[in-house]
Write a structure and sequence with these properties.
Structural class: alpha+beta
Order of helices and strands: HHHEHEEEHHEEHHHEEEHHHEHEEHEEH
Strand order of the largest sheet: 6-5-9-8-7
Helix content: 40-55%
Number of helices: 15
Strand content: 15-25%
Largest sheet: 5 strands, antiparallel
Shape: elongated
Number of strands: 14
């Protein structure tokens, strides 16, 4: 079933049910109100007739055994009202009046007259008499506190139904008008919905969204869509990777302000003023070229689509190739170094100098074993412990001193929390190693690590003998792409990742220069936030 048919069916069915329900309720209320009105009129008319002097006098004479007829008198009164019949009976329930003259003097048909004759009650009852089923209203005729007879004013049910039907027939035109009006409104609504959805069915709309998402993620350029308030409405995986280094997902960015991810792109949007604009900007040391396309409608532009990609030139490609070659040379040097050590060990074994070989191996492993024992003793978290030991080996390669505080303590946490802790410790140690190594000409390079979760917080401190953070970078050192490293490689990512994780777990990140002219980075994380 198409959307148009489905909406038409639902709308028409709903309108029909509402109209039918309203008609039934209206008919019931009208019938009840009309019957109540008839009952009230009938009782009032019966009371008036019960106080009529001619009626009282005739009942007295009838109760004394005289043959009395009120037919002509009562019928003249009845014809002035809308009652079907007015019957006057004496104490013996014999009729003194009746619309059919032959039935005068005969007993009243129905036992519902006796409560009025015997108990003096005024009431209404529906019963079948000689004229057919009717609404019969009774009231006693009282003289000198004695019940001398009763008056019954009736309305035939057939006549009453015809009157009610006539009223409903008059209201039917209003019902028909409302039904037609509802159908017309439904048709206009469905047409509007179809135009809004570009005549697409719901399944086709869902398919279009899936296709759009796949197409966006398959494009190697970064693509971001923002609304008129600069909130991100769509973003592809390439843009997520470049802007957040995959720390955040698309769900974390959607409906958030663009300036949280890139101040440069946010400024471009403000300056575009609804025009197609092309600008250059940087993420760290990588240059990008962005093109802004306004989203237009009849009411004006309501957002932008931003397409950006790396602005590579010959110089940047040459620098990238040089960095890769330098890294390959470093790996080659390391390979030669370990090959030389293996050759030394092989020569000792071939010369049958086994004690010297054992001493050589012991010398190489003593430092590692001591560090490993300290890590195992203080750090229960296997992920973080493995990382710290790997950083110990890196410190040996860089020929710098790596000190782990003997008072460290860290328990096991969930895999997600362990991953966050590994990112924090790894990035801070990498920055500290590099800072201390670059400053080695002025001070012996040294890095200290302290980590503890004894209290309500996890406390992490990394201290290095580097030169510290430059004054002009203090306010933006945590931004993406901002770094104090002076080389051609892409930097400014580590502390950005650290800051994202600290914010995610509602922690704090501080750094300062100590009295010993060292740089100390301190992180505090609430353990309750880590469990959420």
């Amino acid at each position: 079933m198409t959307l148009k048919s489905y909406l038409a069916l639902i709308t028409v069915t709903t309108i029909t049910l509402i109209i039918v329900a309203a008609t039934l309720v209206f008919g019931y209320v009208l019938r009840s109100a009309y019957l109540d009105s008839i009952s009230q009129r009938g009782l009032e008319l019966a009371r008036v007739m019960a106080h009529d002097d001619n009626v009282i006098e005739a009942l007295n004479m009838s109760n004394q055994g005289q043959v009395i007829s009120l037919e002509s008198y009562i019928e003249s009164k009845r014809q002035q009202t809308d009652a079907s019949f007015i019957v006057v009976v004496n104490k013996a329930a014999l009729r003194l009046s009746h619309p059919i003259p032959d039935r005068v003097g005969k007993p009243f048909i129905g036992d519902d007259v006796y409560p009025a004759l015997q108990q003096g009650k005024s009431y209404t009852n529906v019963a079948k008499g000689s004229l057919g089923e009717a609404i019969r209203n009774f009231t006693p005729v009282i003289k000198d506190q004695d019940i001398i007879g009763a008056v019954s004013v009736g309305y035939l049910s057939k006549t009453t139904s015809e009157l009610i039907y006539q009223h409903l027939k008059e209201a039917a035109w209003l019902v028909v008008f409302l039904y037609v009006l509802g159908v017309v409104i439904a048709i206009i609504f469905i047409a509007k919905i179809k135009r809004t959805f570009l005549s697409l069915e719901p399944e086709e709309i869902v398919q279009k969204f899936k296709e759009q998402e796949l197409i966006l993620d398959s494009i190697r350029d970064g693509i971001i869509a923002v609304d008129h308030e600069q909130n991100v409405t769509a973003i592809n995986s390439t843009a997520i990777e470049w802007l957040t280094m995959k720390v955040l997902t698309a769900n974390d960015v959607i409906n958030k302000p663009l300036n949280e991810q890139s101040q440069s792109l946010s400024h471009f949007v403000l300056e575009a003023q609804g025009q197609i604009t092309q600008r250059r900007f940087s993420l760290g040391k990588l240059a990008f070229l962005a093109t802004l396309y306004p989203l237009l409608s009849k009411k004006g532009h309501f957002g932008y689509v931003i397409v950006f990609y790396p602005d590579h030139d010959e110089q940047s490609l040459e620098q990238e190739l040089t960095s890769t070659q330098n890294y390959a040379d470093l790996l080659r040097a390391k390979t030669h170094e370990y090959a030389n050590r293996l050759n030394v060990l092989s020569g000792m074994l071939q010369a049958e100098r086994y004690d010297d070989a054992i001493n050589y191996l012991q010398q190489e492993s003593d430092g590692d074993q001591a560090m490993l024992r300290q890590i195992i003793k203080t750090i229960e978290n296997s992920a973080v412990a493995g990382l710290i030991f790997a950083k110990h080996n890196k410190a040996k390669d860089l020929q710098l001193e790596f000190i782990i505080d003997s008072d460290c303590q860290l328990a096991q946490y969930s895999p997600q929390t362990n991953e966050a802790l590994v990112t924090l410790v790894g990035n801070l140690l990498d920055n500290a190693f590099l800072a201390a190594w670059h400053h080695r000409q002025y001070r012996s390079p040294c890095v200290k690590l302290y980590i503890s979760d004894r209290n309500a917080h996890i406390m992490l401190e990394v201290e290095d003998t580097g030169a510290g953070v430059e004054a002009e970078l203090e306010n933006q050192i945590l931004d993406f792409g901002v770094s104090s490293k002076h080389n051609t490689e892409q930097n400014g990512i580590g502390l950005y990742l650290v800051k994202k994780i600290v914010d995610q777990y509602q922690g704090s990140l501080d750094w300062e220069r100590s009295d010993e002219n060292t740089t100390v980075f301190s992180i505090y994380l609430d353990k309750q936030a880590l469990k959420r």
